[in-house]
Amino acid sequence: MTDQIRSSHDGGVAVLTIDAPSTRNALTLDLSAQLAAAVARAEADESVHALVITGAPPAFCAGADLDTLADAREDGLRAIYDGFLSVAHCSLPTIAAVGGAAVGAGLNLALAADVRIVGTRAKFVARFLDLGIHPGGGMTWMIQRLVGPQKAAAMTLFGEVVDAEAAVECGLALRLVEGDLVEAARELAKPAVGAPRDVLLATKRTLRHTASLTDHSAAVDAEIEPQIASLTAPAFADRLTRLRAAITGR
């Protein structure tokens, strides 16, 4: 079977699956390019409100393909990054459904999503120093923002492996799922699917912007213009009419 990024769109959610079982879903240049293209297609499809990234069992993503990595210099490394950076920069809400090992660049891919949910076999492994290479792709920035400097140092400098339960405990993952991980991701995405798409995308942009602010008043100012735009949109008027009808029974 040819290694590929499988894509399915259903009910407002695009599910992208890294399907390279012989390498535990390791990212080649081709797979990274396919992933970036699949993300772009999902963003361009106005019926899609959320994006789920997962890997064909039993792994999530074993990192960059070692042969590709061995020959990589700056251009090659940036080409490897393209796949997970497309997720990091995605305008849609994103969920990583991590059912197995997320290693190296696979860890980066999981970190790039807005939210991570994990199956019982999930584990997060930096592995860069174990291979004798420096972390890349913004890993040190992403991991510190999520788990803080001490846990980030344990994972990055001392090779601490974080399993599913520990990932939830330290804030690396939102929740542990015992059953169907992709179905759980779809369920999590339902409110986003039900929201007006333009307001949804604007809200994600604002979350990114206000994350770097240190002043409450600046956050109020950042939110006021898109909030006014949403209040004057037809979608709000329609929902308000239906809500009033539901309250009054008319």
From TrEMBL:
<comment type="similarity">
    <text>Belongs to the enoyl-CoA hydratase/isomerase family.</text>
</comment>
<dbReference type="GO" id="GO:0003824">
    <property type="term" value="F:catalytic activity"/>
</dbReference>
<dbReference type="InterPro" id="IPR029045">
    <property type="entry name" value="ClpP/crotonase-like_dom_sf"/>
</dbReference>
<dbReference type="InterPro" id="IPR001753">
    <property type="entry name" value="Enoyl-CoA_hydra/iso"/>
</dbReference>
<dbReference type="Pfam" id="PF00378">
    <property type="entry name" value="ECH_1"/>
</dbReference>
<protein>
    <submittedName>
        <fullName>Enoyl-CoA hydratase</fullName>
    </submittedName>
</protein>
